[in-house]
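Re: folding output
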Amino acid sequence: MYLEVNKIKKSYGEGGSYVQVLKGITTGLEKGQMCVIQGTSGSGKSTLLNCIGGLDTADSGSIKVDGKEIVGLKSAALSDYRRDNLGFIFQFYNLVPNLTVEENIQVCEYLSDSPLDIEELLETLGLTEHRKKFPSQLSGGQQQRCAIARALIKNPKLLLLDEPTGALDSKTSRDILILLEEINRKYNTTMLLVTHNNSIKNMVHKVIIIKDGQIHKEYENETRVPAAELEDL
């Protein structure tokens, strides 16, 4: 199994403000799988994503990515793990405003020993003609495409997405999801998506539903729906 999460617990605060957010999460993903994590606000889904991404530290338990244990790693080792293994995509694009599309992508290209070909990536993401534009000259969908390209240029083994379509209209959301589907097929990138959108679960290989810090339900999709055919985005 490519991603192994075992009995992960995470809490915040102490005394009267103590809250246990994750209460012993155990799950996993095979290489190349797309997986959706769903749950109400406060259920712990983003906290789980952040623990897997090394942006937050678990109190106890184990997280292994490609056989490497990340729980308990020191700050420098966590930075290396994120650089060498992960791509992050968030609801808000976090692009550098005074850099062009191409330059925003190149910022992450330099972090990898084996980056993807930037020309191929720009073409795949429909950004070739926008490469010299600044973020302020792009639509929301184009900015998200740039954020995706920036995450992918490193050729990450695991792509973590937190509400990647949350700020987009339904048509643009569909375009982005079609794009993610193509990337998964083309590069065999393992993807973990946190989303409130109930339709997206129909296009992925696996669905995890979290409730009150625990896995309420998880299952493999036997009949996946292509992103282009998703309804109610």
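--- second protein (sequence, then structure) ---
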Amino acid sequence: MPWLQVKIEIKPQLADQFEDLLLEAGALSVTYQDSEDQPIYEPELGTTPLWANTVISGLFDAQQNMQQMQQQLRQAYQQLETAEAFPELDIEILEDKDWEREWMKSYKPMQFGKRLWVCPSWCDAPDPQAVNLMLDPGLAFGTGTHPTTELCLRWLDSIECQNQTVTDYGCGSGILGVAALLLGATSVLAVDIDLQALQATKTNLQRNALAQSRLSTYLPEHAPAQESDILVANILSGPLVELAPTLAKRVKSNGLLALSGLLVNQLQEIIDAYSAWFTLDPAVELDGWIRVTGIRK
């Protein structure tokens, strides 16, 4: 069955009103998109800001009377307290597809470094003899497609993980902790503020047939204050700066540290926050994002 999609370019301050208008007009779902490729890298905690120019889309049943829907939207819009003129509507037909298969086509096995591959469960591993991490995209951050995750995976592949203990702080999907285990780490302590992330980490541990005893998950306030041989934290610069004393205490003397989730222009504040405890390496950059590594003094 085909669908009708209505797209409207709006200012962010009108987003809530237009979402309500579309739903009241019969939209089955509403989504937001950036119309000018202006990513929001690090929003304030507890906020969900929209782009300066946002496209809101409503998906309608193909049997919907579009003329009636437009009239309803215009009439409801006139009741809003705004000087903005009613925006132009872009209406298109979406042919029915097997959307699950379309989505799956977007994810292919990816290689990180010399040994490590990340493979969706519906794909065969390109190299059965490699270190193959089986992971499906989910609600928690971390599939390998983002530059910061790639930087961390390449680093893990390049170091000696065999018989090492690891802390994955801000674990998301658990991709980094599970990768460390597959690369030979004895145990991983995974920490995240999101319970959904902790559940995703456990699921991905099971998906890779690893013993549950090798990875433990914690909210930050419940995480044991133990030192690890390796600590990796792929979060954001603000939390990383704030957490510097906490993370430093979790790394053994001569232990290794990797920090990511950072933009190039945030390098100096990370150096200032961590150089008291770590001898830092030159930053590695990928697509405007950086990774900072170092050794505990």
